[in-house]
Predict the 3D structure of the following.
Amino acid sequence: MKHGVYAVPMTSEAEHCIVFQSYGGLRGAVAFCLVALLDITSIPHKNLFQTTVFVVIIFTVFVQVCLCSLLSVVTGFLVVS
């Protein structure tokens, strides 16, 4: 059996970016849900944690979009005309 037989082949740069960004979005959603589950009585700085996680999620989303576009051009997946 060959390695990656069950893997779905990605044919375009858009599919690579979608997979890359969906992983980042899922990671951010899990982090935000975990912070939202904190108890305000046992952790008085819950609001600070929520704000920090939200800022990190927003920042990483913008960085991932820029890096994905840049890497697509550099690696040749995307040809700029």
Notes: The helical segments are 13-36, 46-75.
